[in-house]
Write a structure and sequence with these properties.
2 copies of one chain form a homodimer. By secondary structure, chain A is mostly helical. Chain A has 2 domains: 47 residues, Orthogonal Bundle (Arc Repressor Mutant, subunit A); 139 residues, Tetracycline Repressor, domain 2. Helix content of chain A is 71%, strand content 0%. Chain A is built from 9 helices and no strands. Chains A and B meet through helix 6, helix 7, helix 8 and helix 9 of A and helix 6, helix 7, helix 8 and helix 9 of B.
């Protein structure tokens, strides 16, 4: 099938779930090519290396997730309610993944941060930017909640990082136990971390 | 050097930091043998597979960490103060690791949970047992705090899991940024998650 116009897209599409489920080091270019149905030469025509492909998968996944986070956290619902919806969407996403492949794959960015965080500088930088952007998006919502007197934290950015840390930690438990139940605690824990009460409308 | 009496110990000692820094899949038996200074035949005399070695490293690391957690969390200090000391020890441990190898390796159990959690059943089970034991140990301290009216949570076990999740999430940030600063938030976040106030003596 060679360097057809959709070969690059097919490689990305095949690599994404493999990277999410099996991690970076366990994955070989040959396996990705087989899954994508493209010859190895075609792979190296589009990607300089396995790392370059992984970075492209990370970018594509982040573009999708960013749209989702922006949609939920930028909506006109009340600030804390938007955070609740983010956790609900996270839980639904992990449940859908579990249904389609039998086990919870967790968060691609969290997985790669712990597997590769101190191994390749390019991947570390990209993952740092993504966690930075996630934290900033959550921090903006916390600032709005602060302005309405609904969150009692001295530093919105630090609080946002703690909310994201709690999310990553509970996703770790969800993956380890192959059970989405730990994600059900995100909302009350977020309220606790923000010194907040559940909004009346939630 | 062959199957000398200390070859097994040398393999375990060499494999531990490699597994912690580079993960499971990226690591080859040949590399471990070179680092340990033992021939490959010797490796397979002591370990049936790379997985068997990884499980032995996990067990050894957990035996050490369990002693540390039991010492800190089983001391006669006030319950919340014991939790504070656990976070302090976690931060000190990551800082020492950073000093000795240049980058923060994170938590071996968290790393392997996200890299291997849904790949080998034996490793998943072992990691589940460890996180179960960690959660139980923290839950006992929270129960004591509850009995003294110092923690306001409906379920000590769920609260303990959230405290451990927060710890794992902040260790992820510490590894990603190669900076122990995120671990400095563990104590106030723990208090928030437990609906607790800082003890007078802390």
């Amino acid at each position: 099938m060679g360097r057809t116009s959709d070969a690059k897209e097919r490689i990305l599409t095949a690599a994404h779930p493999l990277l999410e489920r099996r991690g970076y080091s366990a994955l070989g270019v040959a396996e990705i090519c087989t899954a994508a149905g493209v010859p190895k030469g075609s792979f190296y025509y589009f990607f300089a290396s396995k790392e370059a492909l992984a970075l492209a998968v990370i970018d594509e996944h982040w573009a999708t997730e960013k749209r989702e986070w922006d949609r939920i956290l930028g909506s006109d619902a009340e600030p804390l309610e938007r955070l609740r919806r983010l956790f609900e969407a996270t839980e639904a996403g992990q449940r859908a993944g579990q249904k389609s492949c039998g086990s919870i794959s967790g968060c691609l960015f969290g997985n790669l941060s712990l597997e590769m965080g101190n191994q390749t500088e390019a991947m570390r930088e990209r993952l740092q930017e993504i966690f930075e952007a996630r934290t900033e998006t959550v921090a903006r919502v916390i600032t709005e909640a602060q302005e309405r007197g609904e969150a009692a934290v001295p530093d919105a950015r630090a609080a946002a990082q703690s909310v994201v840390a709690q999310l990553e930690g509970q996703v770790l438990f969800a993956k380890l136990y192959n059970d989405t139940a730990p994600l059900g605690t995100l909302w009350v824990n977020c309220l606790a971390l923000l010194g907040a009460k559940a909004p009346v409308h939630a």
